[in-house]
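Hey L., structure's done. Input below.
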Amino acid sequence: MNVILMGPPGAGKGTQAEIIKVAFPIPHISTGDMFREAVQNQTPLGKEAKKYMDEGKLVPDEVTIGIVEERLAQADCDQGFLLDGFPRTTIQAEALDKVLERLHKKIDTAINITVPTELLVRRVVGRISCKECKAIYNLEFNPPSQTGVCDICGGSLTQRSDDQEETARKRLEVYSEQTAPLLAYYENKGVLHTLRGDRETREVFADIKNILERL
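Output:
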């Protein structure tokens, strides 16, 4: 199964992706994680991507599409994949279709998670994650047992530089303007499923699981 997980920053895509990859034997491919790794390693791509990420802007298509194509061609994607954070525009979606055609694959379903804007801002501003195991917490909704320490591995918790309120609101604005038309693209293809993300994690996953089990 080839799946796209969609939704604005703070919608819970990362949390659901972690659950999905345990329940289903497909790799979770997050462009955000790939960008941040490149930034940390200070590669030419990472330095270029960082300028856009810090401003809450989308990384240029030519950079993003190249990264994604290399990843989807790897052997662990032969039985399927879960794309998280890509595509974000119809131009990217069309480019992805061309990539998949070359790889003799196609998108089976696009799952869109929706959450009211003000709740999204609260989620993003309070979000922290573990440097070691990448576990995600929220200072308001899901705080760690001990301040600054991961419950799972004991690693240090940190906040992303682009999770400040001003930047978060800018990211949501960019998402609304540039990414929302993507919903119509996949709806026209008959593969779009939209779910409410302002519910308990297990409730959202139950709906996702029902969709994926029908593929």
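The mean pLDDT is 90. The radius of gyration is 17 Å.

-- N.
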